[in-house]
Fold this protein.
Amino acid sequence: MALQQQNYEILGAVKIKDGLFVGDELASQDLEFVVANKVTHIINCCGRQVPNHWEPIGVVYLTYYWVDTDSQTILDHRDVVSNELFQFIEEALENSESILVHSVRGQSRSCCVLAAYMMRKYSWGLRKTMEFLSARRPDVTLKPAFLQQLSAYERRLMANSKDKFSTD
């Protein structure tokens, strides 16, 4: 008898905190989820693969055409993208609206985006952020290049921050 390998995979969306969800392609197309959770904003990290389904009903999209490869830059050195993401998420949350950050499987690009947001928002170090994300979404699998970009982002945040960064 062959042993079946257990693949732990979460389908759909996972709540990261009130109003903030990370999800996969299924979550991005699930109208019931979008309506039930009052999702008015979506960050689509995989615009090449997944279209913006709910634009016709007024959902606001921030779309990136990233590919899930080590050569993909998500967090540029001038922090153009991270600032854009931060403003987009903050604006939705300040208006008590919910936001979904998704990629195809919701494990790499979308988690990189969320990690960058949380590091800036809460002055958390990369390790603490990844532990928090992994507790919410155990199947997080960031590409090594995305982890390197987050590590460089952490250094930039620490260099420019008045706050003490919490690493544990």
